[in-house]
Amino acid sequence: MTGGAGADELGELRDAGHSPEERLAALGLTLPVVTPPLAAYVPAVRSGNLVYTAGQVPVVEGQLLAAGKVGAQVGAHEAAALARTCALNALAAVVSVTGRLGAIKRIVKVTVFVASAPDFTGQPQVGNGASELLLEVFGEAGRHARSAVGMAVLPLDAPVEVELIAEVRD
């Protein structure tokens, strides 16, 4: 899920008006299959021109990539990479409703939940993993409001969970 274009090349792609799909491919990434919900909810819901995602944990091909508390079992740098995976999963959830990544007009709000050791205070840096991916894929349309909060525990003992709100085109 890593590799692809460098920062200069991505800037050129954004400036040249390339689609979010092209930018994602330039990053060496593809949208994953949406993970089935763990309980009585759906991965994403559209209401008017907004799509709200359920919280997405760092699951790839059905496997949780890491477990534990950030600042204890999981380092902050690793947690930021996991937040990036969560954001990619959230984009897949949006696409499950809209049919294509290009339907996203802008990312409005991102909430990053970080299962934190009691003395860990780097939640904003963990959240940057998700935020930076969205900026790389959508350029200025990926710039969003965000909350990054520490939690005692998350589902499946995941270190990070991300949800987002996207404005979409008709």
Characterise this structure.
The protein is an alpha+beta fold. The chain has a single domain, classed as 2-Layer Sandwich (60s Ribosomal Protein L30, Chain: A). It contains four helices and seven strands; from the N terminus they run H-H-E-E-E-E-H-E-H-E-E. The protein has a five-stranded mixed sheet, with helices on one face. The two termini are 30 Å apart.
* CATH topology title: 60s Ribosomal Protein L30, Chain: A
Structural class: alpha+beta
Largest sheet: 5 strands, mixed
- Compute the average pLDDT: 92
Task: Give the total of domains.
Answer: 1
Architecture per CATH nomenclature, i.e. the level-2 architecture: 2-Layer Sandwich
Shape: globular
Low-confidence stretches: none
**Strand order within the widest sheet?**
1-2-7-5-6
| Beta fraction | 15-25%
Classify the helix fraction into a percent range. 25-40%
Secondary-structure element order, N to C: HHEEEEHEHEE
Oligomerization status of the protein chains: single chain
CATH homologous superfamily name?
RutC-like
List keywords for this structure.
five-stranded mixed beta sheet; two-stranded antiparallel ribbon; 170 residues; 60s Ribosomal Protein L30, Chain: A; single chain; globular; alpha+beta
Summarize the structure.
It contains four helices and seven strands; from the N terminus they run ααββββαβαββ. It has a single domain (7-168), classed as RutC-like (60s Ribosomal Protein L30, Chain: A, 2-Layer Sandwich), CATH 3.30.1330. Helix content is 32%, strand content 24%.
